[in-house]
Amino acid sequence: MSLPKDRIIIASDVNPRDGIGVELYRDDEIQVEVFRDDTERTRKVTLFKDSVSLELVEEAIRNFKDAGLWDFIEYES
Question: What is the pTM of this model?
Fold first, then answer.
């Protein structure tokens, strides 16, 4: 089964980052990642091309929020 060339993937990462994010692909190439790091308590956008349209960045952020990924995980001390 092959993946669509244009897709959004929700992916978690635990080393070295600790969190979850949305990866937006166009024509089988990653364009934008929006990532929430629960340890650092940050949200960051990474662009994988020199130039990415504002609409694509907004789409990635909208999908990040719509997927319910905005809130940090609270770890017990």
Answer: 0.89
